[in-house]
Amino acid sequence: MPPRHRWQAFQQLLREELAQATRLAPSTRLWEMPVAAALASALPLLIGAWFQRMDLGMVASLGALVFLYMPNTALMHRMLTLMVCASGMTACFTLGILSHLVPALMMPVLIFITVLVTALCRLGRVGPPGNLFFIMTAAIGAYTPVPLAAIPQMVGLLAMGALLACLMAFFYSVYALRRQPPVPPPSQPVDLHQTAFEALVIGTFVGASLALAQLLQLPKAYWVPVSCLAIIQAPSLRAIWVKPIHRLVGTAIGLVVAWALLLVQMDAWTMAFTMMGLTFLIETLIVRNYTFAAVFITPLTILLAEAATLMQTSPSLVMQARLIDTVLGCAMGVAGGLCLHNAALRARADRLFSHWLPRA
């Protein structure tokens, strides 16, 4: 192809990607759902603000993320799904926070959690956000510095936040099912060979991303495996190359938003309502445009994971660390995604698994 034609093809590709990155997809989600999600995450924060213990409210609010796993199915299936997810998230946080006591165990524990959760989410046909928040909760727990005696309290707070979110989901579902009929739960068969292969590859690269972050001595590098996980699960080879760009752009803008928020001297109540607003914006935009949602995911995650120490740390240093984490995580995610979509590697794994694992 002549250089002129290659340049024209490149320009056309850029126009298509720009249009894709800025396009707002239609959504059938009720507007009340983002409101309910924001309330579920904000109630623990408001309680923490009332008792002047925002650090404890943040942990409970992390458990409230389980609300986002609510499917659009019948009420019984919704609640069973949420209760199972709440138990799983509590278990992941417990293993993560225990691994903090022995830093050498962080990587193997995260690999174990990632492989197990990825396989179970595939087998249970758990929809978006899939394995993301389970692994993010474990990663944040691994970088939560608490003594051994305080771990039961932290785990109990996260479990209480998850149960509060389940209660909020119940009342919302009773209302929503009168507005929209439920959809049947997914029933398509799952290929055990491919599930095992994907779980092992994803777990390996997520663990390797954390090991690399530790090798580079990055402070609070929980965001590296989370960024790796978000990229490695892209559905196609093209998405493997495109999604990191979307995530980096969204994260960079989000860091500017977070920096602006941190320049404002927020008290506990202001921070709680700010995070409530961020959650509402994320849940409104996530089904329409991922890049726009990432702009608000970044400041929400920073506030949720580091609010207790932000007052003693320079906002610029926090922003710089999260940007480095994102770049490193995206690079590892691209490498893992290339392995995940390698046809020859998949075929070899399929032959290996056929000796000891049924296909379905």
User: Taking Cα atoms only, what radius of gyration do you get, to the nearest Å?
Assistant: 20 Å
Share in helix: over 70%
Q: Return the average pLDDT rounded to an integer.
A: 83
- Name the structural class: mainly alpha
Gap between N and C termini: 46 Å
State the oligomer: single chain
The major beta sheet can be summarized as:
none
Topology as H/E string? HHHHHHHHHHHHHH
List low-pLDDT spans: none
Q: Which strand-content bin applies to the residues?
A: under 5%
How many helices? The count is: 14
- What overall geometry do the principal axes of the alpha carbons give? globular
Number of strands: 0
Structure description:
This protein is an all-alpha fold and 360 residues long. It has 14 helices and no strands. It has helices at residues 3-22, 32-50, 54-63, 75-99, 106-123, 132-142, 151-176, 192-215, 223-232, 237-263, 268-285, 290-310, 315-340, 343-353. Helix 2 (32-50) runs antiparallel to helix 7, helix 9 (223-232) runs parallel beside helix 13 and helix 10 (237-263) packs across helix 12 (290-310). It is globular, with a radius of gyration of 20 Å. 44% of the residues are buried. The mean pLDDT is 83.
Task: Provide the fold topology.
Blueprint lengths: L2 H20 L9 H19 L3 H10 L11 H25 L6 H18 L8 H11 L8 H26 L15 H24 L7 H10 L4 H27 L4 H18 L4 H21 L4 H26 L2 H11 L7
Helix pairs in contact: 2-3, 2-7, 2-11, 3-7, 3-12, 4-5, 4-6, 4-7, 5-6, 5-8, 6-9, 8-9, 8-13, 8-14, 9-13, 10-12, 10-13, 11-12
Features:
single chain; 360 residues; mainly alpha; 14 helices; 0% strand; globular
